[in-house]
Each structure stands twice: as structure tokens, then as C-alpha cells.
Amino acid sequence: MRPRQGRPRLLQALLDAIRIPDLRRRILFTIGMLVVFRFVAHVPLPGVDAVALQELFQRNALLGMLDLFSGGAMRYFSVAAMGVYPYITSTIIMQLMTPIIPRLRVLSQEGEAGRNKINQYTHWLTVPMAALAGYGQIILLQREGVVTTTPGLPMAAMVLAMIAGTMFLVWLGELITEYGIGNGISIIIFGGIVAALPTMIGQGFLAAGNTSGLALYVFIAIATMAVIVIFTEAHRRIPVQYARSIFRGGRMYRQAGSTHIPLRVNTAGMIPLIFGMSLVMFPGMIASYFAAPVGADPNFANTIVNLFDPRAALPMGLFYWGLYFALVLGFTFFYTMVIFGQQDLPGALQRQGGFVPGIRPGRHTADYLNQVIKRITWGGALFLAGVAVVPFLIREITNIQVIQLSSMGLLIMVGVVLDTMKQMEAQLVMRRYEGFIK
């Protein structure tokens, strides 16, 4: 079905999807689950001083960034304050443990049944991860005088409520994946980020001292998103030829074909940003427990806190953001090689009778593919490291402190939109409709 003249291709594709009953039902189901998520995000936990919590968020930039990912749930300290990030952490741990633990390595090679078993282990691991994260958040807020709950049964009730909130969001995400459009977990994260953007942008317009600085801020943000789209879709095509022998009717036939392997420039996704940020924030978070209070003589812990403060201006800020840049660069290579090793592309090619033209099968193919992935990962690593320090560069160039542009938030938003568009395109193509991606 061709788009009508004068109507944008994207809009026409969305209209075509809405006209199809099955797709319309999937889209409405996804929207409904996001509405449920927003309701849950505003269910507060008991024993929280709302006024003290708001004052803490005004003083602490890190909490403001975490609140951006939770879609405002952290600001109200609701049952969904942790979002689905304990599940994301569990997924990353399982990915890293799969090539190390023999039992998991065997399961990963057993097809759909093995993947389902690993997914079940991931859900089990999410519960203790959510308990630890929830307990840590409550203790941190207790130190700041925000939470008045005493240890014992009230504390256990709060932790259990936060675990239930996380698992409920994971369940919503899986429902979206099965009955809706797109990857449900990613859409839940996307919904949380987008829900917090209007308030943050409104505060930026109110607090902006000069219109030119705000305009430059918006321009850099849009340019960054364009670069993210380019690098997210960029890949290197490795030509592959297949030669198969088929026995049919008492005779042997040889069939040949050619295709390609797309090696992504950014194979690691946003995982290096998560690893890098976790490590670069850890020293300051630990030092804050030993730092002298405001008004007292600063000690060594205060120096560490200031050194690892993402809000620090030049030249102090160069240490934090320079370390973050280097960590993202290193983690990109590490995680890419781990994921690439798990895929075992040379072995898969050899088992399927495929080969790279001009390269011998087996070890020579493995060496060639490893060399190619290392070369193109330099582009992905520099891209991720550059995106990681974009918030610092924008803040220094435009001098706007209110709007907290997150590199991970931009990557998530762009990635989810692209993935959802592709799934929508696939659904339309199956029904002989023309979508909006060529």
C-alpha cells in the first residue's frame, strides 16, 4: 500500500498500522501497559519525608540523574523507584558468567530451551539484586533524614515492596514483548525517561538566563541524537559464501549461495556506559559516608567527594569526566570481545558450510573476524566515550545547569525508537504494507 501524496511516510505507516486490527490491538496494549507503569511510579512507600526528599534532590545531582531513569519514581520514592535496573544488572551478570561457568555455557548452546532456562536464572538473580539495591537506597536516605523507618519489620516491608515493584515492572515489560510492539523492558525504561523530560525541559526554559545558550543546548542535543542514530545503525558487512551438497533422487547436487555477516560498529550498546558510570561514581559514594559535615573542616574524604563530583567545573571536572571517558573506552573493547566470543561465528560458519572468500575456514577465519571486529570497535568505542562526556561539554559550552542531559538516556531513547520502528516495519511487511524504513 503506497503512502498517499503529500502525507509523510512515517505518519502514513502509523495510520496503516492502526487500520490493521491486530497491530492496533498491539499498539493499544503497549500504551495501556505504559499507563499502568506510570500509575505504579506514583505509589509512595510509607515513612518518607516528602519535603526532605525534595530538598535532597535539589542538593544531589546524582539522585536527579537516577530519577530521570525511573521516570520520577525516585523523586517520590515509590515502589517502582528502582525501575527494571536490577533485572538489567542481572542480565549483564548472566551474560558475563555464561562463558565462564560450564553449566551456563552448555545451556546457551541448547537453543530455545537453554535460553529459557538462563532467563529463569536471570529472574531469580533479580530478586536478591533488587533487595540489595532497595536496602542500600533506604539506608542512604535514612542518613539524609528522609526515611524515618526503623530497622526490623517496617524496613523489611519497604524492601519487599521495592522488590515487588521491580518484579511487577519486569512482568509488564515481558507482557509488552509478547502482546505489544517492541522490546518490553526497553520500552519501560524509555517510558520512564520520556515521562521526566517535560518537567526537566520546562525548568530549563524557566532557569535559562540567555536564549542563545538554550538554543545552542537544543542544537547540540539534536546533533548528538543524529550521531547516535548513525553509529547505532553502522555495521561492516563480511561477505560469506555457502556450498552445500544435497542428496536427492539418488543423485548428489551441489548448491551455492552468498550472503554477508553484519558486524556492528557499536556491538556493546550502552553497557560500557553503565559499567563506566558505576565505577566512576563508586569512590565518591563511599567517601561521602566519611566526609565531614557542612561547616566543619574538610578531611581527605571531602577531597575524594569533590574529585569524583560530576557537577565539578573546570579544571576539577576534567578528572571525573576524563576517567569516565577512559573507562568507557576500555569497557567497550572488553564487552565487545566477550559478546563476540560467545557468538562463535567462525564455528557456526564451518558447521553450516560457509566461508569468507579468500580466507581459510577454522582458525584463519577466526583470526580474520577478530581483527575486523577490533578495528571497527575503535569507532564504536570512541563514539560511546564521546557520547559519555557530552553532558559535561554541553554544560561547559552553554552554562546551563538545570537540564541534565544523560548520555545513557539519549542512547536508550534512540535505540528503543529505532528497534520499535523496525518491528513495526516487519509487521507491516508481513501484511504486505509498505512501512517507513527502506
Can you describe what's shown?
Mean pLDDT is 79; it is low at 1-7 and 433-438. The chain has 2 domains: 1-207 and 412-438, Preprotein translocase SecY subunit (Orthogonal Bundle), CATH 1.10.3370.10; 209-401, Preprotein translocase SecY subunit (Orthogonal Bundle), CATH 1.10.3370.10. The protein has helices spanning 9-19, 21-40, 50-59, 61-70, 85-97, 102-108, 111-143, 153-179, 184-207, 211-233, 271-287, 300-307, 316-343, 345-351, 363-388, 390-398, 407-430, and strands spanning 235-248, 251-264, 354-355. The protein starts with 8 loop residues before the first helix and ends in an 8-residue tail after the last helix. It is mostly helical. The protein is built from 17 helices and 3 strands. It has a 3-stranded antiparallel beta sheet.
Topology:
Blueprint: H1 9-19, H2 21-40, H3 50-59, H4 61-70, H5 85-97, H6 102-108, H7 111-143, H8 153-179, H9 184-207, H10 211-233, E1 235-248, E2 251-264, H11 271-287, H12 300-307, H13 316-343, H14 345-351, E3 354-355, H15 363-388, H16 390-398, H17 407-430
Antiparallel strand pairs: 1-2, 1-3
CATH C-level label of the largest domain? Mainly Alpha
What's the number of extended β-strand segments? Answer: 3
- Global geometry: globular
User: Average pLDDT, to the nearest integer?
Assistant: 79
* Alpha carbon gap, first and last residue: 14 Å
Rounded to the nearest angstrom, the radius of gyration is 25 Å
State the helicity in percent bands.
55-70%
Oligomer class: single chain
Architecture of the largest domain in CATH? Orthogonal Bundle
- Number of discrete domains: 2
CATH fold-level name of the largest domain = Preprotein translocase SecY subunit
Which regions have little confidence, pLDDT < 50, spanning 5+ residues? Answer: 1-7, 433-438
Secondary-structure element pattern, one letter each: HHHHHHHHHHEEHHHHEHHH
CATH superfamily membership of the largest domain: SecY subunit domain
Question: How would you sum up the major sheet?
Answer: 3 strands, antiparallel
Number of helices: 17
**Strand residue content:** 5-15%
How are the strands ordered across the major sheet?
2-1-3
| Class derived from helix and strand content | mainly alpha
